[in-house]
Structure of Hydrolase:
Amino acid sequence: MEGIILTFVFLGLALFVLTPRKTIGATISALSFTGYFYLVGVNSWIPVALFTVGLLLIVLEVFIPDFGLVGISGILSIVLGLYWTLGDLTQTIQDLSIAIVITAAMVVYLIRRGYSLTNVNKLVLQSTDPGSKANDSVKSPDHPIKPGLRGIAQTPLRPSGKVTFGDNSPYFDVISSEGHISRGTPIEVEKVSATKIVVRRQRSLTF
């Protein structure tokens, strides 16, 4: 039972990070967090603090690329907080495993539905006139984006991140269709819509 409640802590966190439904995600996560520690019985505030810090570090890792140490510290903090609460390493691993597997499935589902950090960021993308062929492009001030446009990954794409198209280009939030793409990799636009830009590694030109 506790493992299922713990799962909802992470599911709420996934909704908070990947979708615009931040209030719903935060509420689910907070209520589940409270319910979990209430059910297992907590005699000290230390494990609660460790778990909370761990969650915050993981969120920070998601929003700030290349801070691997922060994410690892967050995971260790969560594990330590749960172990401190349960006093049983096997139960700790079991509860976390259930939560991670179900949350991972949820994250994959959300990404396939088009949700990612790209949707969360403040970049405003305007689509062209519906019904025309230009419907496959996205407009930004002085920088029309369309399939085939080439640029450079300015952050790791995991699968979302930031790229630029040309020397004076602003940063654009994109999603990689090929999974992880390292920073500095040449990319090209694969497809676009009103809400997202999908990119891939540049293909060699053939004649």
User: Anything to note?
Assistant: Residues 118-139 have pLDDT under 50 and may be disordered. The chain has six helices and seven strands. The longest helix spans residues 89-112.
